[in-house]
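2024-03-11 09:14:02 DEBUG pipeline.ingest accepted 1 chain
2024-03-11 09:14:02 DEBUG pipeline.ingest length=162
2024-03-11 09:14:03 DEBUG pipeline.predict start
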Amino acid sequence: MKKVKYFENKSMNSEVEIEEADKNLRETTKMASDNEQKLDEMTRKCGVQEEELKRANERADLAATKLKAVEDELEAVGENMKQLEISAEKAQEREEKLQDKILQLMDRFKIAEARYEYGEMNITKLNHRIDDIEDEIYREKLKIKKVSDELNDTFDDMLENY
């Protein structure tokens, strides 16, 4: 009777440990799912930033093209002195505006690049964290297997002895 109670207590303790391990597994799985969602969101944000960067590059190319057109226009207007002075003033104003736009675009590009680097850093951190969680899940699986093996051995012992 004492041995029966001993094995009953032992099996109850094992069941409690299994339930705790199962609870830990569910929590870990939820955390992994949450981290995957965060990773997906960061990937989407990086994609958006890449598109913004492409658009900024296209605008910079367009501004460079406009600047080239302004320079060509200045050479063509060089025939008439009066018109040259008027056109030169207008072209100079346009050139300054374009240079300001180029500077603004360069500033935007630098900001977008900084965001991209920050996103990459966050992705690296998340990947490291995912690796840690995967390692923890593996360790938990090993613990659960060990408990399961012990429980099977206990049941086998009980079957052999009773």
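2024-03-11 09:14:41 DEBUG pipeline.report Residues 81-161 form the longest helix (81 residues).
2024-03-11 09:14:41 DEBUG pipeline.predict end
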